[in-house]
Amino acid sequence: MALIVQKYGGTSVASPERIKNVARRVASWQAKGHQVVVVVSAMSGETNRLISLAKEMQAVPDPRELDVIASTGEQVTIGLLSMALMNLGVKARSYTGGQVRILTDSAFNKARIVSIDDASIRRDLDGGSVVVVAGFQGVDENGNITTLGRGGSDTSAVAIATALQADECQIYTDVDGVYTTDPRIVPEARRLEKITFEEMMEMASLGSKVLQIRSVEFAGKYKVKLRVLSSLEDLGREGTGTLITTEDDIMMEQPTISGIAFNRDEAKLTVLGVPDRPGIAYQILGPVADANIDVDMIIQNVGHDGTTDFSFTVPRGEFARTTAILEQIRGHIGARQITGDNKIAKVSVVGVGMRSHVGIASKMFRTLAEEGINIQMISTSEIKISVVIDEKYLELAVRILHKAFDLDHAPA
Amino acid sequence: MALIVQKYGGTSVASPERIKNVARRVASWQAKGHQVVVVVSAMSGETNRLISLAKEMQAVPDPRELDVIASTGEQVTIGLLSMALMNLGVKARSYTGGQVRILTDSAFNKARIVSIDDASIRRDLDGGSVVVVAGFQGVDENGNITTLGRGGSDTSAVAIATALQADECQIYTDVDGVYTTDPRIVPEARRLEKITFEEMMEMASLGSKVLQIRSVEFAGKYKVKLRVLSSLEDLGREGTGTLITTEDDIMMEQPTISGIAFNRDEAKLTVLGVPDRPGIAYQILGPVADANIDVDMIIQNVGHDGTTDFSFTVPRGEFARTTAILEQIRGHIGARQITGDNKIAKVSVVGVGMRSHVGIASKMFRTLAEEGINIQMISTSEIKISVVIDEKYLELAVRILHKAFDLDHAPA
Fold first, then answer.
1. Which of B19, B54, B72 comes nearest A83 by C-beta?
2. Which of A105, A161, B223, B301 could form a disulfide with A5 if both were Cys (CB 3.0 to 4.6 A apart)?
């Protein structure tokens, strides 16, 4: 018998019929003898509806009152799912974030969990109930309702699994696991049985939007096993999804590379010929950060003749605004020229195995060169290598890298 | 400076535009120097939507979970109204029933208020805020969300006014006060400046659906002045509504009769020739009560020859079911015959003044007789006289009684 925390997102509970499906799935886990805590999101579309109502009242809705309103979406779902479970003869009991109680700080709209009182949940589980908890929400020490920010239900689930020392935290989505790359681009892409927290974070941040990066980070920190599963598969014919766990849990025969991630939504900017002196990076990126523009890759090569070139990438939608900011500060920082390109893509190979294997980078660069794909920027971390290339080569690059690193076939 | 509790119902907050209107009205009261607590219902239609969702999960929704779901309707409104107030530059803060805290018993769907903690509300009022409280809901001593039953927001408002010892509890509706009778039937009907709690209860229970009877009872018990006002009148051109208060507050020149109430939604049943022995009333009404059918008037006249006739009225929709129940027990109770009529109406004259005036009844009966209207049943209380007549005479009866008791003209 295991203690399992399951999380179902907005599309999984989008209609009364889908909520009933979730209830059947939950009931089947309980019938196998497991204790089950279910964390749910608002019905798909509901949070947007509530936020739209709020914006009709105030152009910038008051953060405290916005949380009062937005938190009702999940509150409706917990009641509905509990009823659907009872209708199947399963004992069930719902909890809002405040009822659990999930204590957060007072940062409305983007609160962070401070602690979780597991007493009530444990009592209900021991009494044979399924416990249904509203995701995305909590309460601060003054009793104010808070929310964790959009999509925060994954984080709620991981936090509850941590507090309960659950055996597994299952995140149900509309895909049946994490893939070596996007199957729409590479039909041979395979579902991974296991992946490490670190790899998953790189995959997630690079555009594989299966899990929220914050919840993966949280799970890794507390070593809560995460499993990505599909809520669309027929009961009795479910797959095993992808387990996200620590490196220790993954066999030594793990291949060097786990997957190929990519991101089309970037643009690059280069500041040419800036004086090569301390503080120049801050002078360039400070105004960009002040404008709330996220910066992804940042590259500065060694300078020569007292000047250097500085490049970085931003979300494509911020390209024009970032260019304008740079033009404004160009004279002040003494740069020669600003250039940019919003027709780029980033491709990354990810894998914990690359730590102990030299040659991954050269294999990647050679593979791209053989197809005549020029590399515009390179950035590396311990477990990933990212390159920026012309957008038009994206699909080709992903396909040839997937094949070159032998991801088309399951490891022997 | 007064402390005022205002309650706005579902139609007053049915849309973002109407919520903004409510905000302007609330702001105008605060601008006059008053402290204002606002109690709101769910946006019109929202509670029904939520209950429908629940019924898709369970034919008979679990009472605890139904309250978890239904209470979100008011929670959305408090957030929206607080934002609308802030948008007008008015400090505002919302509270759910649990946050106040409005402590109730654990009778889900029909909970009763046990106590109200006024500390947070007072602190916010003293800090210059308008306090916006979700009506219809509370929390039991175990932290479970409860609701007071449909329309319970009036009761919430009165209870909060009692706890705060407010100067007045204003109930905003879509009518501008309590009338001597329905103006659709008698164009000369007048708005009453004042009416006693007792009269209002008789008027409400007799079909003038302006206020919930439970809230009037509650207000009378704790002597909280209630005022019925329209939320549709233009700001700056509002009327004074109708004040519902104790008899002591009403001038001695108060006319004998305050109003004519009526109810079309009744049917009468008569059990003829039952043995005139102790317990017979219980034997007849016990099975009716067991079937959850509300009984209104009950009449049993003195018997003769060892038998008597027993009559009572029920809601018209229950006529067939009640008839079937009586036919079933007829043999057992030894009754001769069951008769009934669902084409009846009840007309009542109401007024505290009648206590000290003989002759009201005879004036009422003479007035009806002069128009050839036959009286089928009569029932009286200290402050009202009700008669059952053929439904087709209803409008005529109301008009002639309104005139006979001189309600067409304001008291001198």
1. B54
2. A161
Convert the pLDDT of each residue in A90-144 to its tens digit: 999 999 999 999 999 999 999 999 999 999 999 999 999 999 999 999 999 999 9
Question: What average pLDDT is seen over chain B?
Answer: 90
Lowest mean pLDDT, pick from A55-59, A236-240, B129-133, B344-348: A236-240
Interface test with A, best of B26, B64, B66, B68 (most A CBs within 10 A): B68
CA–CA separation, B222 and B209 (whole Å): 22
CB-closest option in A69, A79, A84 to B79: A69
**Which residue stretches of chain B have pLDDT < 50?**
none
Check CB contact under 8 Å for A62 and B82.
yes
Q: Which residues of chain B lie closer than 8 angstroms to A20, CB-CB?
A: 57
Q: Quote the distance between the C-alpha of residue B41 and its chain's center.
A: 16
Six-digit token pair at A306? Answer: 């007292």
What is the rounded CA–CA span in Å between residue B66 and residue B147?
9
Q: What is the mean pLDDT of residues A205-220?
A: 76
The pair of structure tokens assigned to A279 is 């503080």
pLDDT of residue B128: 97
A vs B: CB pairs below 8 A: 105
User: Tokens representing A51?
Assistant: 């936020």
Exposed, middle or buried, A81 (CB in 10 Å: 0-12/13-18/19+)? buried
Beta-carbon contacts of residue B164 (< 8 Å; ≥ 6 apart): B3, B5, B37, B118, B121, B122
Instruction: Note the pLDDT of residue A300.
Output: 80
Which residue among B50, B82, B144 sits closest to A76, beta carbon to beta carbon?
A: B50
What H or E segment, with its residue span, contains residue A199?
Answer: helix A197-205
Specify the pLDDT at position B393.
95
Strands A168-173 and A3-8: parallel
Write the pLDDT tens digit of every residue in A292-329: 888 888 888 777 788 888 899 999 999 999 999 999 99
Average pLDDT over residues A392-404: 95
- Chain B residues whose CB is inside 8 A of the A96 CB are 68, 145
Task: State which residue of chain B sits closest to A65, comparing Cα positions.
Answer: B79
Contacts of B50 in chain A (CB under 8 A): 76
Find the DSSP H helices in B206-318. Answer: 213-222, 280-290
Q: Which residues in chain B have Cβ-Cβ distances shorter than 8 Å to A129?
A: none
Does A83 contact B99 at a Cβ distance shorter than 8 Å?
no
Say which residue, A235 or A356, is predicted with more confidence: A235
CB-based contact A75 B75, cutoff 8 Å: yes
Q: What is the pLDDT of residue A298?
A: 87
In a mutational test of the A interface, the residue from B13, B60, B62 whose CB has the highest number of chain A CBs within 10 Å is B62
Domains of chain B, earliest start first: 3-248 (3.40.1160.10)
Minimum-distance CB partner of B79 among A65, A80, A93: A65
User: Which one, of B402, B329, B312, lies nearest residue B364 by Cα?
Assistant: B402
